[in-house]
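Quality-control log, excerpt.
Job 1 of 2 completed; input and output follow.
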Amino acid sequence: MTLTREELQRLALPLLIAAALVAVGVGLIYSAGEGLRTAQARLAVAQNERRQSTERLARIAEEEREVSQKIDVYKQLKSLHILGEERRLEWADSINRIRVQRELLDLRYRVERQKLVTSVAGKPASVDFFASTMRVEMQLLHEEDLLRFLADLRASGNAYYSVKRCVIARTGQAVGGATMTPRLSAQCEIDLITIIDRAAKG
Protein backbone atom coordinates (compact mmCIF):
# COMPACT_ATOMS: atom_id res chain seq x y z
CA MET A 1 0.00 0.00 0.00
CA THR A 2 1.39 3.33 -1.07
CA LEU A 3 0.47 6.52 0.73
CA THR A 4 0.24 9.78 -1.14
CA ARG A 5 2.05 12.89 0.01
CA GLU A 6 -1.23 14.38 1.16
CA GLU A 7 -2.05 11.30 3.25
CA LEU A 8 1.44 11.33 4.78
CA GLN A 9 1.01 14.98 5.72
CA ARG A 10 -2.30 14.15 7.41
CA LEU A 11 -0.68 11.25 9.37
CA ALA A 12 2.41 13.20 10.43
CA LEU A 13 0.73 14.97 13.37
CA PRO A 14 -0.91 11.83 14.80
CA LEU A 15 2.37 9.93 14.45
CA LEU A 16 4.24 12.68 16.30
CA ILE A 17 1.61 12.68 19.03
CA ALA A 18 1.79 8.87 19.28
CA ALA A 19 5.59 8.96 19.49
CA ALA A 20 5.41 11.66 22.16
CA LEU A 21 2.87 9.61 24.13
CA VAL A 22 5.09 6.51 23.90
CA ALA A 23 8.08 8.55 25.13
CA VAL A 24 6.00 9.94 27.96
CA GLY A 25 4.79 6.43 28.82
CA VAL A 26 8.34 5.07 28.85
CA GLY A 27 9.39 7.98 31.05
CA LEU A 28 6.53 7.33 33.46
CA ILE A 29 7.35 3.62 33.62
CA TYR A 30 11.04 4.40 34.30
CA SER A 31 10.10 7.02 36.90
CA ALA A 32 7.69 4.59 38.59
CA GLY A 33 10.39 1.93 38.66
CA GLU A 34 12.86 4.34 40.20
CA GLY A 35 10.26 5.43 42.74
CA LEU A 36 9.54 1.81 43.62
CA ARG A 37 13.24 1.04 44.05
CA THR A 38 13.69 4.16 46.19
CA ALA A 39 10.67 3.23 48.31
CA GLN A 40 11.97 -0.34 48.71
CA ALA A 41 15.39 0.97 49.75
CA ARG A 42 13.80 3.33 52.28
CA LEU A 43 11.64 0.49 53.59
CA ALA A 44 14.71 -1.72 54.00
CA VAL A 45 16.52 1.07 55.90
CA ALA A 46 13.48 1.66 58.10
CA GLN A 47 13.12 -2.08 58.82
CA ASN A 48 16.84 -2.32 59.66
CA GLU A 49 16.60 0.69 61.98
CA ARG A 50 13.50 -0.80 63.62
CA ARG A 51 15.27 -4.14 64.10
CA GLN A 52 18.29 -2.41 65.63
CA SER A 53 16.03 -0.37 67.92
CA THR A 54 14.18 -3.54 68.98
CA GLU A 55 17.51 -5.26 69.70
CA ARG A 56 18.73 -2.25 71.69
CA LEU A 57 15.51 -2.20 73.72
CA ALA A 58 15.84 -5.95 74.35
CA ARG A 59 19.46 -5.48 75.52
CA ILE A 60 18.46 -2.59 77.77
CA ALA A 61 15.61 -4.65 79.27
CA GLU A 62 17.99 -7.59 79.86
CA GLU A 63 20.59 -5.31 81.46
CA GLU A 64 17.90 -3.78 83.70
CA ARG A 65 16.78 -7.27 84.72
CA GLU A 66 20.37 -8.30 85.53
CA VAL A 67 20.96 -5.10 87.50
CA SER A 68 17.71 -5.66 89.41
CA GLN A 69 18.75 -9.23 90.26
CA LYS A 70 22.19 -8.06 91.41
CA ILE A 71 20.62 -5.34 93.54
CA ASP A 72 18.36 -7.95 95.17
CA VAL A 73 21.36 -10.20 95.91
CA TYR A 74 23.31 -7.21 97.24
CA LYS A 75 20.41 -6.25 99.55
CA GLN A 76 20.18 -9.82 100.86
CA LEU A 77 23.91 -9.94 101.56
CA LYS A 78 23.71 -6.51 103.18
CA SER A 79 20.84 -7.60 105.42
CA LEU A 80 22.87 -10.63 106.54
CA HIS A 81 25.87 -8.37 107.35
CA ILE A 82 28.08 -10.46 105.05
CA LEU A 83 29.36 -7.41 103.19
CA GLY A 84 32.17 -5.38 104.66
CA GLU A 85 34.73 -5.96 107.36
CA GLU A 86 34.47 -9.00 109.62
CA ARG A 87 32.38 -8.57 112.78
CA ARG A 88 34.23 -10.43 115.53
CA LEU A 89 32.34 -8.78 118.38
CA GLU A 90 29.00 -9.73 116.81
CA TRP A 91 30.29 -13.28 116.29
CA ALA A 92 31.23 -13.54 119.96
CA ASP A 93 27.86 -12.12 121.07
CA SER A 94 26.00 -14.59 118.85
CA ILE A 95 27.92 -17.60 120.15
CA ASN A 96 27.43 -16.57 123.78
CA ARG A 97 23.72 -16.01 123.20
CA ILE A 98 23.36 -19.43 121.55
CA ARG A 99 25.30 -21.08 124.41
CA VAL A 100 22.97 -19.55 127.01
CA GLN A 101 19.73 -20.16 125.09
CA ARG A 102 20.61 -23.77 124.25
CA GLU A 103 22.09 -24.38 127.72
CA LEU A 104 25.23 -25.88 126.25
CA LEU A 105 27.40 -27.35 129.00
CA ASP A 106 30.83 -26.56 127.61
CA LEU A 107 31.57 -24.49 124.52
CA ARG A 108 34.98 -23.14 123.60
CA TYR A 109 36.04 -21.52 120.35
CA ARG A 110 38.93 -19.70 118.74
CA VAL A 111 38.78 -17.57 115.59
CA GLU A 112 41.94 -17.49 113.49
CA ARG A 113 43.23 -14.58 111.47
CA GLN A 114 41.31 -13.60 108.36
CA LYS A 115 42.61 -14.92 105.04
CA LEU A 116 41.81 -13.96 101.45
CA VAL A 117 40.02 -16.89 99.78
CA THR A 118 39.55 -15.50 96.28
CA SER A 119 39.24 -12.25 94.40
CA VAL A 120 36.73 -11.89 91.58
CA ALA A 121 37.32 -9.27 88.92
CA GLY A 122 34.46 -6.84 88.51
CA LYS A 123 33.53 -3.37 87.31
CA PRO A 124 34.69 -0.91 88.45
CA ALA A 125 36.68 -2.87 91.05
CA SER A 126 37.22 -6.41 92.29
CA VAL A 127 35.18 -8.28 94.91
CA ASP A 128 37.23 -10.06 97.60
CA PHE A 129 36.08 -13.10 99.58
CA PHE A 130 37.68 -13.54 103.02
CA ALA A 131 37.43 -16.39 105.50
CA SER A 132 38.23 -16.57 109.20
CA THR A 133 38.38 -20.16 110.41
CA MET A 134 36.65 -20.73 113.75
CA ARG A 135 37.62 -23.85 115.71
CA VAL A 136 34.87 -24.96 118.09
CA GLU A 137 35.01 -27.55 120.87
CA MET A 138 31.73 -28.59 122.49
CA GLN A 139 30.45 -31.06 125.04
CA LEU A 140 27.11 -32.55 123.98
CA LEU A 141 24.31 -34.44 125.64
CA HIS A 142 23.28 -35.71 122.18
CA GLU A 143 23.95 -35.04 118.49
CA GLU A 144 20.99 -32.68 118.18
CA ASP A 145 22.83 -30.10 120.32
CA LEU A 146 25.45 -29.72 117.58
CA LEU A 147 22.90 -29.45 114.76
CA ARG A 148 20.93 -26.81 116.68
CA PHE A 149 24.10 -24.85 117.41
CA LEU A 150 25.07 -24.80 113.71
CA ALA A 151 21.53 -23.81 112.67
CA ASP A 152 21.45 -20.98 115.21
CA LEU A 153 24.87 -19.83 114.08
CA ARG A 154 23.76 -19.61 110.45
CA ALA A 155 20.55 -17.82 111.43
CA SER A 156 22.47 -15.20 113.41
CA GLY A 157 23.92 -13.56 110.26
CA ASN A 158 27.08 -11.41 110.53
CA ALA A 159 28.88 -13.77 108.11
CA TYR A 160 28.32 -16.72 105.84
CA TYR A 161 29.04 -19.79 107.95
CA SER A 162 30.58 -22.66 105.96
CA VAL A 163 31.14 -25.83 107.99
CA LYS A 164 34.37 -27.44 106.81
CA ARG A 165 34.22 -30.47 109.12
CA CYS A 166 32.87 -31.70 112.43
CA VAL A 167 34.13 -34.70 114.37
CA ILE A 168 31.98 -36.24 117.11
CA ALA A 169 33.41 -38.67 119.66
CA ARG A 170 32.06 -40.38 122.78
CA THR A 171 33.37 -39.01 126.04
CA GLY A 172 33.30 -42.37 127.78
CA GLN A 173 31.76 -40.80 130.87
CA ALA A 174 29.08 -42.77 132.63
CA VAL A 175 25.57 -41.34 132.54
CA GLY A 176 24.00 -41.04 135.97
CA GLY A 177 23.58 -38.92 139.04
CA ALA A 178 21.64 -35.72 139.49
CA THR A 179 23.78 -33.68 137.08
CA MET A 180 23.66 -33.93 133.31
CA THR A 181 26.77 -35.61 131.98
CA PRO A 182 27.88 -34.98 128.41
CA ARG A 183 28.09 -38.21 126.44
CA LEU A 184 29.68 -36.70 123.31
CA SER A 185 32.30 -34.16 122.39
CA ALA A 186 32.50 -32.34 119.06
CA GLN A 187 35.28 -30.50 117.31
CA CYS A 188 34.37 -28.35 114.31
CA GLU A 189 36.10 -26.11 111.82
CA ILE A 190 33.83 -23.41 110.45
CA ASP A 191 34.79 -20.74 107.92
CA LEU A 192 33.22 -17.36 108.61
CA ILE A 193 33.13 -15.78 105.17
CA THR A 194 32.77 -12.06 104.49
CA ILE A 195 32.78 -10.15 101.22
CA ILE A 196 34.39 -6.82 100.47
CA ASP A 197 33.31 -4.92 97.37
CA ARG A 198 36.26 -2.67 96.56
CA ALA A 199 34.09 -0.36 94.48
CA ALA A 200 31.61 0.15 97.31
CA LYS A 201 34.43 0.54 99.82
CA GLY A 202 36.11 3.22 97.75
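Job 2 of 2 completed; input and output follow.
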Amino acid sequence: MSSPPVLSIKNLTLAFGPKTIQKNITFDVRQGSIFAVMGGSGCGKSTLLKSMIGLLRPTTGQYHVQNDDYWSGTDAQRTDINHRFGVLFQNGALWSSMTLGENIALPMQMFTSLKPPVIRRLVELKLGFVDMLHAIDLYPSEISGGMRKRAGLARALALDPDILFFDEPSAGLDPITSARLDDLILNLRDGLGATIVIVSHELSSLFHIADDGIFLDAASKTPIEHGAPAHLRDQSDNPTVHAFMHRENTQQEQKSS
Protein backbone atom coordinates (compact mmCIF):
# COMPACT_ATOMS: atom_id res chain seq x y z
CA MET A 1 0.00 0.00 0.00
CA SER A 2 1.49 3.36 -1.02
CA SER A 3 1.94 6.13 1.49
CA PRO A 4 -0.53 9.05 1.46
CA PRO A 5 0.45 12.24 -0.35
CA VAL A 6 2.17 14.91 1.70
CA LEU A 7 1.75 17.44 -1.10
CA SER A 8 -1.04 17.37 -3.67
CA ILE A 9 -1.44 19.67 -6.67
CA LYS A 10 -4.51 19.59 -8.92
CA ASN A 11 -5.03 21.51 -12.18
CA LEU A 12 -2.61 24.28 -11.24
CA THR A 13 -1.97 27.16 -13.63
CA LEU A 14 0.96 29.51 -13.09
CA ALA A 15 1.18 32.87 -14.84
CA PHE A 16 2.78 36.30 -14.69
CA GLY A 17 0.03 38.66 -15.76
CA PRO A 18 -1.24 37.51 -19.17
CA LYS A 19 1.78 35.24 -19.73
CA THR A 20 1.04 31.60 -18.84
CA ILE A 21 4.09 29.72 -17.57
CA GLN A 22 2.54 26.28 -16.99
CA LYS A 23 -1.01 24.92 -16.91
CA ASN A 24 -2.86 21.72 -16.03
CA ILE A 25 -0.27 20.67 -13.44
CA THR A 26 -1.44 17.71 -11.36
CA PHE A 27 0.69 15.45 -9.17
CA ASP A 28 1.14 14.07 -5.66
CA VAL A 29 4.31 13.91 -3.59
CA ARG A 30 4.36 10.88 -1.31
CA GLN A 31 5.75 10.72 2.20
CA GLY A 32 9.48 9.98 2.20
CA SER A 33 9.95 10.38 -1.56
CA ILE A 34 12.46 12.49 -3.46
CA PHE A 35 10.33 14.14 -6.14
CA ALA A 36 12.05 15.80 -9.10
CA VAL A 37 10.70 18.73 -11.10
CA MET A 38 12.36 18.33 -14.49
CA GLY A 39 12.45 20.03 -17.88
CA GLY A 40 14.53 22.23 -20.12
CA SER A 41 15.48 25.84 -19.48
CA GLY A 42 12.55 28.23 -19.34
CA CYS A 43 9.87 25.58 -18.79
CA GLY A 44 8.81 26.90 -15.36
CA LYS A 45 10.55 24.55 -12.94
CA SER A 46 11.62 27.24 -10.47
CA THR A 47 8.30 29.04 -10.92
CA LEU A 48 6.47 25.91 -9.80
CA LEU A 49 8.79 25.61 -6.80
CA LYS A 50 8.12 29.25 -5.86
CA SER A 51 4.40 28.54 -5.87
CA MET A 52 4.87 25.45 -3.68
CA ILE A 53 6.74 27.46 -1.03
CA GLY A 54 4.27 30.33 -1.08
CA LEU A 55 6.09 32.96 -3.17
CA LEU A 56 3.69 32.90 -6.14
CA ARG A 57 -0.07 32.47 -5.97
CA PRO A 58 -1.36 30.26 -8.80
CA THR A 59 -3.95 31.59 -11.23
CA THR A 60 -6.13 28.49 -10.83
CA GLY A 61 -5.97 25.10 -9.16
CA GLN A 62 -5.53 23.61 -5.71
CA TYR A 63 -2.49 22.94 -3.55
CA HIS A 64 -2.82 20.83 -0.41
CA VAL A 65 -0.11 20.32 2.19
CA GLN A 66 -1.27 17.16 3.92
CA ASN A 67 -4.86 18.10 4.82
CA ASP A 68 -4.47 21.87 4.54
CA ASP A 69 -5.57 23.84 1.47
CA TYR A 70 -2.57 26.13 1.20
CA TRP A 71 -3.92 29.04 -0.81
CA SER A 72 -7.45 29.18 0.64
CA GLY A 73 -6.22 29.95 4.15
CA THR A 74 -5.16 33.19 5.81
CA ASP A 75 -1.64 34.57 5.75
CA ALA A 76 -1.18 33.35 9.32
CA GLN A 77 -2.28 29.83 8.35
CA ARG A 78 0.16 29.81 5.44
CA THR A 79 2.93 30.96 7.77
CA ASP A 80 2.17 28.02 10.06
CA ILE A 81 2.34 25.63 7.10
CA ASN A 82 5.60 27.22 5.94
CA HIS A 83 7.19 26.26 9.26
CA ARG A 84 6.96 22.66 8.04
CA PHE A 85 9.11 23.60 5.05
CA GLY A 86 12.85 23.91 4.67
CA VAL A 87 14.17 25.60 1.52
CA LEU A 88 17.61 25.51 -0.07
CA PHE A 89 17.79 28.24 -2.71
CA GLN A 90 20.10 27.95 -5.69
CA ASN A 91 22.69 30.40 -4.37
CA GLY A 92 22.34 29.38 -0.72
CA ALA A 93 20.70 32.76 0.13
CA LEU A 94 22.80 33.27 3.24
CA TRP A 95 22.98 36.70 4.89
CA SER A 96 26.45 37.99 4.02
CA SER A 97 26.68 40.14 7.16
CA MET A 98 26.14 37.14 9.46
CA THR A 99 28.38 34.20 10.30
CA LEU A 100 27.16 30.75 9.34
CA GLY A 101 26.17 30.13 12.94
CA GLU A 102 24.16 33.36 13.05
CA ASN A 103 22.47 32.50 9.74
CA ILE A 104 21.31 29.14 11.04
CA ALA A 105 20.28 30.52 14.43
CA LEU A 106 18.07 33.21 12.87
CA PRO A 107 14.96 31.05 12.15
CA MET A 108 15.11 29.64 15.69
CA GLN A 109 15.36 33.14 17.15
CA MET A 110 12.43 34.35 15.05
CA PHE A 111 10.03 31.42 15.40
CA THR A 112 10.81 29.66 18.68
CA SER A 113 11.19 30.60 22.35
CA LEU A 114 14.40 28.61 22.78
CA LYS A 115 17.12 30.10 24.97
CA PRO A 116 20.43 31.19 23.35
CA PRO A 117 22.50 28.27 24.75
CA VAL A 118 19.97 25.77 23.36
CA ILE A 119 19.95 27.53 20.00
CA ARG A 120 23.74 27.47 19.90
CA ARG A 121 23.76 23.71 20.54
CA LEU A 122 21.16 23.10 17.83
CA VAL A 123 23.16 25.23 15.38
CA GLU A 124 26.20 23.07 16.13
CA LEU A 125 24.14 19.93 15.48
CA LYS A 126 22.81 21.24 12.14
CA LEU A 127 26.26 22.25 10.97
CA GLY A 128 27.69 18.96 12.19
CA PHE A 129 25.17 17.08 10.05
CA VAL A 130 26.55 18.74 6.91
CA ASP A 131 30.17 18.51 8.14
CA MET A 132 30.49 22.26 8.57
CA LEU A 133 30.88 22.70 12.33
CA HIS A 134 34.44 23.94 11.87
CA ALA A 135 33.07 26.94 9.91
CA ILE A 136 30.47 28.08 12.44
CA ASP A 137 32.11 31.49 12.97
CA LEU A 138 33.03 32.13 9.33
CA TYR A 139 31.15 34.44 6.97
CA PRO A 140 29.70 33.26 3.63
CA SER A 141 32.38 35.20 1.73
CA GLU A 142 35.07 33.17 3.49
CA ILE A 143 33.94 29.75 2.23
CA SER A 144 33.56 27.99 -1.13
CA GLY A 145 30.38 27.66 -3.18
CA GLY A 146 29.97 24.03 -2.17
CA MET A 147 30.35 24.92 1.49
CA ARG A 148 27.76 27.68 1.12
CA LYS A 149 25.33 25.11 -0.31
CA ARG A 150 25.90 22.85 2.71
CA ALA A 151 25.51 25.78 5.09
CA GLY A 152 22.27 26.70 3.30
CA LEU A 153 21.11 23.13 3.79
CA ALA A 154 21.90 23.37 7.51
CA ARG A 155 19.77 26.50 7.73
CA ALA A 156 16.95 24.77 5.83
CA LEU A 157 16.99 22.19 8.64
CA ALA A 158 16.88 24.80 11.41
CA LEU A 159 13.24 24.27 12.38
CA ASP A 160 13.27 20.48 11.82
CA PRO A 161 10.98 20.58 8.76
CA ASP A 162 9.50 17.39 7.39
CA ILE A 163 9.30 18.75 3.82
CA LEU A 164 12.35 20.12 2.01
CA PHE A 165 12.55 22.06 -1.26
CA PHE A 166 15.80 22.35 -3.22
CA ASP A 167 16.26 24.67 -6.22
CA GLU A 168 19.13 23.44 -8.43
CA PRO A 169 21.25 22.27 -5.48
CA SER A 170 24.07 21.00 -7.71
CA ALA A 171 24.31 24.11 -9.89
CA GLY A 172 27.85 25.44 -10.09
CA LEU A 173 29.38 22.53 -8.16
CA ASP A 174 32.14 20.22 -9.34
CA PRO A 175 31.20 16.52 -9.75
CA ILE A 176 32.73 15.43 -6.43
CA THR A 177 31.03 18.17 -4.41
CA SER A 178 27.76 17.52 -6.25
CA ALA A 179 27.92 13.80 -5.42
CA ARG A 180 28.58 14.64 -1.78
CA LEU A 181 25.50 16.85 -1.71
CA ASP A 182 23.44 14.07 -3.30
CA ASP A 183 24.52 11.74 -0.50
CA LEU A 184 23.46 14.33 2.08
CA ILE A 185 20.03 14.56 0.44
CA LEU A 186 19.67 10.77 0.56
CA ASN A 187 20.65 10.83 4.25
CA LEU A 188 17.90 13.37 4.90
CA ARG A 189 15.37 11.05 3.32
CA ASP A 190 16.65 7.78 4.76
CA GLY A 191 17.86 9.00 8.16
CA LEU A 192 15.34 11.71 9.03
CA GLY A 193 12.35 10.58 6.98
CA ALA A 194 12.13 13.88 5.13
CA THR A 195 10.04 14.35 2.00
CA ILE A 196 12.02 16.22 -0.66
CA VAL A 197 11.09 18.19 -3.77
CA ILE A 198 14.06 19.01 -5.98
CA VAL A 199 14.32 21.19 -9.08
CA SER A 200 17.27 20.07 -11.16
CA HIS A 201 18.55 19.52 -14.69
CA GLU A 202 21.64 17.58 -13.54
CA LEU A 203 21.04 14.10 -14.95
CA SER A 204 23.52 12.17 -12.81
CA SER A 205 21.96 13.64 -9.67
CA LEU A 206 18.40 13.02 -10.85
CA PHE A 207 19.07 9.39 -11.72
CA HIS A 208 20.87 8.78 -8.43
CA ILE A 209 18.47 10.25 -5.89
CA ALA A 210 14.96 10.87 -7.30
CA ASP A 211 12.28 8.17 -7.11
CA ASP A 212 9.42 10.14 -8.69
CA GLY A 213 8.93 13.30 -10.69
CA ILE A 214 7.19 15.40 -13.29
CA PHE A 215 8.52 16.69 -16.62
CA LEU A 216 7.44 20.20 -17.65
CA ASP A 217 7.42 21.14 -21.33
CA ALA A 218 8.20 24.71 -22.38
CA ALA A 219 6.50 24.44 -25.80
CA SER A 220 3.08 23.20 -24.69
CA LYS A 221 3.36 24.82 -21.22
CA THR A 222 2.10 21.58 -19.68
CA PRO A 223 3.53 18.54 -17.93
CA ILE A 224 4.15 15.81 -20.50
CA GLU A 225 5.53 12.94 -18.40
CA HIS A 226 5.38 11.66 -14.84
CA GLY A 227 7.66 9.15 -13.13
CA ALA A 228 11.11 8.51 -11.75
CA PRO A 229 13.89 10.08 -13.86
CA ALA A 230 15.56 6.71 -14.49
CA HIS A 231 12.22 5.25 -15.61
CA LEU A 232 11.64 8.15 -18.02
CA ARG A 233 15.16 7.73 -19.36
CA ASP A 234 14.57 4.05 -20.10
CA GLN A 235 10.87 3.98 -21.01
CA SER A 236 9.61 7.33 -22.31
CA ASP A 237 8.93 7.54 -26.05
CA ASN A 238 8.21 11.28 -25.94
CA PRO A 239 10.89 12.89 -28.16
CA THR A 240 11.33 15.94 -25.88
CA VAL A 241 11.77 13.80 -22.78
CA HIS A 242 14.03 11.35 -24.60
CA ALA A 243 16.29 14.15 -25.87
CA PHE A 244 16.54 15.69 -22.39
CA MET A 245 17.27 12.41 -20.61
CA HIS A 246 19.88 11.30 -23.16
CA ARG A 247 21.53 14.65 -23.85
CA GLU A 248 24.81 13.68 -22.17
CA ASN A 249 25.16 10.71 -24.52
CA THR A 250 24.48 13.02 -27.46
CA GLN A 251 27.10 15.52 -26.26
CA GLN A 252 29.68 12.76 -25.84
CA GLU A 253 28.97 11.43 -29.32
CA GLN A 254 29.39 14.91 -30.79
CA LYS A 255 32.73 15.38 -29.02
CA SER A 256 34.03 12.05 -30.29
CA SER A 257 32.90 12.58 -33.88
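Post-run check on job 2. Residues 250-257 have pLDDT under 50 and may be disordered.
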